[in-house]
Amino acid sequence: MGEKIVDKKILENYINKYQIGEVFSNDMKPYMHLFKFNKGEHICRVQEDLEYLYFFVSGKAKVYTVMSNGKSLLLCFYTPFKVIGDVEFMYFNKADCSVQAIEETYCVGIAFEHIRKYSIEDSKFLRFICDGLAEKLTRLSKYSSINLLYPLENRVASYILSNKEKNTFKENLTETAELLGASYRHLLRTLNSLCTKSIIRKTRNYYEIIDEDILRGLAEDLYE
């Protein structure tokens, strides 16, 4: 669930920065808490109970789903400002996808029990939720098209840029291939092709980005 940070000043700064209090007709600030998620930590996991509605206010996370055969598929990356838990609030508490921090990440959370008690009939809040769900539906259509129609080279470029540490890419290649819906061999061939074009370079157990401009041209912000 992440670490609850007891710092009213930082919490208030995030609330004001993203005008989270304006989402509600009622004053919900007394029920807001700040959570920190370290790199690699899950904010939620698919089919596990989710107890909070989260406002994603700092950091970066990858969003993926787990298919019936047990394999994972990348959907997108989250950067501020996003909402996590709106689908679960409307229908059930079990997460419909997994969200994993890829750098130190902060969320402002409100327990579902307080949302349902004080805001279940709040038209202002419900309008906000509906707008968010409409946006997610549009993005889902886009991501489905990306996974079906874009060559792996473009998707790999986008994934490298979204997961790079300074100028290096150190992700597990087996997991990367699964998330991108590709075979391990296909991923290796694509990475080798990028190396041949002097866009990246293999260095021991990681890849170094040589030409970020070309890589960004290939990425086209696919998963943003």
UniProtKB/TrEMBL annotation:
<protein>
    <submittedName>
        <fullName>Cyclic nucleotide-binding domain-containing protein</fullName>
    </submittedName>
</protein>
<dbReference type="InterPro" id="IPR036390">
    <property type="entry name" value="WH_DNA-bd_sf"/>
</dbReference>
<dbReference type="InterPro" id="IPR014710">
    <property type="entry name" value="RmlC-like_jellyroll"/>
</dbReference>
<dbReference type="Pfam" id="PF00027">
    <property type="entry name" value="cNMP_binding"/>
</dbReference>
<dbReference type="InterPro" id="IPR018490">
    <property type="entry name" value="cNMP-bd_dom_sf"/>
</dbReference>
<dbReference type="InterPro" id="IPR000595">
    <property type="entry name" value="cNMP-bd_dom"/>
</dbReference>
<feature type="domain" description="Cyclic nucleotide-binding">
    <location>
        <begin position="37"/>
        <end position="136"/>
    </location>
</feature>
